[in-house]
């Protein structure tokens, strides 16, 4: 089915109200200052429009005129190219490749732990918390290396990482003993106007914005 007239005339995002992958895309949109229509989705009961537009019925799904995109990585990179200012990827191919690899690892290693804690049974949630803390501990040197994650300026990697750090209190995951750099990183990102705009009401309740 073709997109509705409303969707053909506006950038539209189908998004869960508490999902790290959807939050990632909303943070990209907020960083770019792009206006869009947000359609909240219950992943267990997707709306008919989403079922018709996306064969996987998944979120996030972005609709722009006749274009339909899904998968957070695909949507995020499209938005960075479609709205080039401010750029959220470095210019040189080596740095871009490193960031893409880091984001892939976030999707494959970190996000499943968040989902296990949110959606799994007690054993799965406990295992997810243990593994997520291990990942945080191993990544402390990366957070100490600069203001942002693996890049001198805010990038798509931060848009993928920050939603996870934001959820740590609600997930019951404490920072490691030497995790001050992670706390400082989170505070820098969370203080930005773009991050505040990226939050849904459900997500605001998961943590507190720094004063």
From TrEMBL:
Pfam families attached to this UniProt entry: GST_C, GST_N_3
PANTHER family recorded: GLUTATHIONE S-TRANSFERASE OMEGA, PTHR43968
Organism annotation: Marilutibacter penaei
Family designation: Belongs to the GST superfamily. HSP26 family.
Record's protein name: Glutathione S-transferase N-terminal domain-containing protein
CDD domains in the cross-refs: GST_N_SspA
Lineage per the UniProt record: Bacteria, Pseudomonadati, Pseudomonadota, Gammaproteobacteria, Lysobacterales
Keyword line: Transferase
Coiled coil regions in record: none
GO cellular component: cytoplasm
Cited Gene3D superfamilies: 1.20.1050.10, Glutaredoxin
Superkingdom of origin organism: Bacteria
Domain GST N-terminal, residue spans: 9-87
Annotated GO MF terms: transferase activity
PROSITE patterns, alphabetized: GST_NTER
């Amino acid at each position: 089915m073709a997109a509705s007239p409303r969707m053909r005339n506006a950038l539209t995002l189908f998004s869960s109200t508490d999902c790290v992958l959807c939050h990632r895309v909303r943070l990209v949109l907020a960083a770019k200052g792009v206006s869009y229509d947000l359609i909240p989705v219950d992943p267990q009961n997707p709306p008919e429009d989403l079922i018709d537009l996306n064969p996987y019925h998944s979120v996030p799904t972005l609709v722009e005129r006749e274009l339909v995109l899904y998968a957070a990585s695909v949507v995020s990179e499209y938005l960075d190219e479609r709205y080039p200012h401010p750029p959220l990827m470095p210019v040189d191919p080596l740095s871009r490749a490193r960031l893409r690899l880091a984001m892939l690892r976030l999707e494959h290693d970190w996000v499943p732990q968040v989902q296990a804690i949110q959606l799994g049974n007690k054993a799965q949630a406990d295992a997810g918390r243990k593994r997520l803390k291990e990942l945080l501990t191993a990544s402390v040197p990366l957070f100490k290396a600069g203001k942002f994650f693996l890049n001198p300026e805010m990038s798509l990697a931060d848009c993928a990482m920050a939603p996870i750090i934001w959820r740590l209190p609600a997930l019951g995951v404490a920072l490691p003993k030497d995790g001050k750099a992670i706390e400082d990183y989170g505070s820098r990102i969370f203080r930005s106007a773009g991050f505040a705009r990226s939050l849904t009401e459900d997500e605001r309740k998961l943590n507190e914005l720094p004063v």
